[in-house]
Amino acid sequence: MASLTAPIHIIYASTGGNTEHVMEQVAQYWREQGVTVELHRSEQTPLSVITNNKYFLFATSTWDHGAINPFFLALLKEMKTADFSGKTASFIGLGDRRYEKYYFCSGMTAIKEIWEKSKGRSVGVALTIGREPFETVIEEMVKKWADETLPLYESQAQGQAT
Q1: What's the chain's average pLDDT?
Q2: CB-based contact 26:58 (threshold 8 Å)
Q3: Domains recognised in the chain with CATH numbers
């Protein structure tokens, strides 16, 4: 059973539904562990969701030649001017290795870089997915990542309580 008392806010950009599908999987796994999870589409998310909360998962697909999903652009622009001290996040990126092997999941990397420049704490290893997320092997990879990452949030919560 999870020891987090504050929710994890999953903020994601999805156009074709792949990123949304993965975020729903992560939310389900964490809810099964007793964590409160709130899903937010990036284009509908005000910066106040981030400034008023502690724990996040950011996710996006990568477009064109390494660009972030356009649905994340407005929020990312606002994030550049914020201070995320005392906040913790993990990251997931989706991409297609066949077309953009050099820019694979660089949309997620852009979010992570801005998060860290704005003094946010990153936990765990970012999950990158390069195929359709509806395969059993991908679902198992997502579950494993979610299981390994959740205790890192809990460690942050315990560290802040002491």
Answers
A1: 87
A2: no
A3: 8-161 (3.40.50.360)
